[in-house]
Amino acid sequence: MSEETKIVVVGAGFSGLAAAATLIKAGFQNVKILEAKERVGGRVCTTKPFTENIIELGANWIHGQKGNDLYKLAKEHDLLAEKALKDSSESSQDYFFKEGGKHLPDELADGVTSLFEKLTSKAFDRELPESYQDLTLGDYLDVSFAESSLADEEDGSRIFEWCKRNECTDEAVSSLYEVSASQESEYIARGGEFFNSLGPRGYQAILDLLLNDLPSGTILNNTAVKSIQWDKDEEEDHAVQVICENDQIFEADHVIVTVSLGVLKEHARTMFEPALPKSKLDAIDKLGFGTVDKIFLCFSERFWPEDCAGIQLTWDEGPEDKAVYSSEDEEDAWKETWFKKISGFDAVARHPKVLCGWITGREALHMETLEDSEVGDTCVRLLRSFTGWSVPDVSQVLITNWGHDPHVQGSYTFVPHHVNGVKESEALAAPLPSCSQESKPLQVLFAGEATHVNFYTTTHGAYLSGLREAERLINHYSD
Ligand SMILES: Cc1cc2nc3c(=O)[nH]c(=O)nc-3n(C[C@H](O)[C@H](O)[C@H](O)COP(=O)(O)OP(=O)(O)OC[C@H]3O[C@@H](n4cnc5c(N)ncnc54)[C@H](O)[C@@H]3O)c2cc1C
Q1: Residues 186 and 317 in one domain
Q2: Stretch 15-23: mean pLDDT, rounded?
Q3: What residue stretches are annotated with the Amine oxidase domain (predicted)?
Q4: 298 in the same domain as 185
Q5: Closest-CA residue to 16 (of 201, 214, 230, 292)
Q6: 227, pLDDT greater than 80
Q7: Residue 52 lies in a domain
Q8: Would the CA dihedral through 227, 280, 449, 347 be positive or negative?
Q9: Region 83-109: what's the mean pLDDT?
Q10: Is residue 13 within 8 Å of residue 58, measured between CB atoms?
Q11: Residue ending a domain, choose from 399, 424, 459
């Protein structure tokens, strides 16, 4: 059966590669991956733009160790860095500044960041008192911080606003007022060290492991899928036809769709024929897909101290302040101050002369429309005015473009306020046709980070979702 069975995987990101490698190992011989881009990896993109050392434009860490299959895989193949490369607690620490070159006291920064961690952990561990449960994460944090003595300290609030802005990166949101305090999802943080760095070959080394399991010719690059026609007549040999932008047509018994939630938001209504069921379209609409971008600044010389893990910027009035975020009368005013959303500039592992700025949400999308040189000049201006140090002009600027990348359309999934994450992720992951229909089973399956109820947003979630759909087919044929 498996010799005859034709399987098409749409997308060669972590989930698509994991699905195809698992199917091929199980004996399926007719597996093709159709990938829109000329490279594989999707939101994993290891490059060498500055020196012989790598820069990760997408995923950088494996989050969590215990029970994390991707961590296990990387460890088994000796692909992890010797020590975590984001270790601000030991020999280096974040430097917090306010405009005008004022370095804020480390003790105050430590106090506020620890309080912030405690408050978010309470929310993430679902330990909030009932009175807070209907609040947005932003509102819950504001109320809780106001009760703390740190709120009365000069500069306490500005560091707290920075913490909220920084948290937007983890959540992939424009603002923490978009997500719930009560975490209406089942995200599970794996135990052990949260930030696990990969060795000198970066994430590409794990992609290579999966690629080694694929016979040559399995992946067709530059082959964007335009339309998936499923539930074809009983008389047809194969239930599904996949039509590509370049007019190639592939017959298949099963198609595993792994495109990002961003791509589904843009194309799901036109990509499938017959149309997707309402439950799936609702899930695509309701789940959020936010943008997180990185701004790499390469300098001719290092100007920050050895023990500085990152230069963090605190503003008098932050874009995370609720009043600023929700002010309707100033519609596009935030575009003028998009740079206020940059949380700061972190030192980059293996690159002593490179800093990486982080920016999220609508401001990240706006930044993507600007020239690299404008972004670079703005960042240098910020670094000069906040630190007061002698900051040279930047020699190379590299900004990511995840929001406007037509084959990704954002960075990762979030669960908006009042959306039931479990219900919607499950609806997104459900194969078609549904069990109740009398058509050929498992014609269109869905993988990708957004379809994983517990590990959405992450590479290990993407990887496991690919295994899940491969195993669904393997079980189907072994029943
Ligand atoms: C800036 C950034 C930082 C991140 N940091 C981390 C991190 O540190 N740790 C972590 O665990 N996760 C991180 N992530 C998230 C992680 O990268 C993703 O969760 C994961 O890589 C998603 O894999 P995927 O297979 O689900 O989707 P994708 O990687 O998006 O793969 C989907 C593939 O489908 C292709 N495609 C799209 N449309 C079509 C079409 N029409 N036809 C054919 N092919 C198509 C795309 O080109 C892509 O290759 C980060 C992501 C970003 C953007």
Answers
A1: yes
A2: 98
A3: 14-474
A4: yes
A5: 214
A6: yes
A7: no
A8: positive
A9: 80
A10: no
A11: 399
